[in-house]
Amino acid sequence: MTKKLLTTSEVCIILNVTRWTLAKWEKANKLKPIRTTGGHRRFHESEVNELMGVKTPSEAQNHKVVAVYCRVSSHEQKSKGDLDRQKARTLEYCVKQNYKVEHILSEIGSGMNDSRGKLNRLFDLVRSRLINKVVVEHKDRLTRFNFNYLDSFFSSYGVEIEMIESVFPKSYEAELVEDIVSLMASFSAKLYGKRSSQRRQNHIKSGTKGQVQ
Hints:
Elements: E1 5-6, H1 8-15, H2 19-27, E2 34-35, E3 41-44, H3 45-52, H4 57-62, E4 65-72, H5 75-79, H6 82-96, E5 100-108, H7 117-127, E6 133-136, H8 147-156, E7 160-163, H9 172-211
Parallel strand pairs: 4-5, 4-6, 6-7
Antiparallel strand pairs: 1-3, 2-3
């Protein structure tokens, strides 16, 4: 692929410097122009970008910007230090992999709840293309069920989900039961609330009918 060449005027505008400063940098080998057949100086755009600290598309693609996501189901687990230990293990893994962690998201909530605040924040990061990798301890940290849908959504934005371990911890069964109980309680509350509302409406209607002569 042909490298784009910039004129002296274009480089001065991009770098916001004078021609004198540009000539000084040329003597210091900060920028190395090439000469055209007509004797004019031209500068490689990639070298100008490098001087400004701007990454080329290929470099940006190889640069992994990581978000770490950690979750426990209950406040009791957090009080026992489970959330902190999970976060420590995940960050230690990222350090060993030389990942640049820019976002650390941790929260308390059921893996069956898709309205978690930090999970929605993670979705925003994905949609905004601010990250290209998500690291979790286990896939159930993100969701209990339908993980493949979530994986497909992330992949459509070029984001990879990386799991530290594929084997669930021994506490997985107990936490899953806790999530199911929480889900049942939520459904029951909604069901009873609907029935209660319906009974109130029936009472109101019955009272209204009784007043009609």
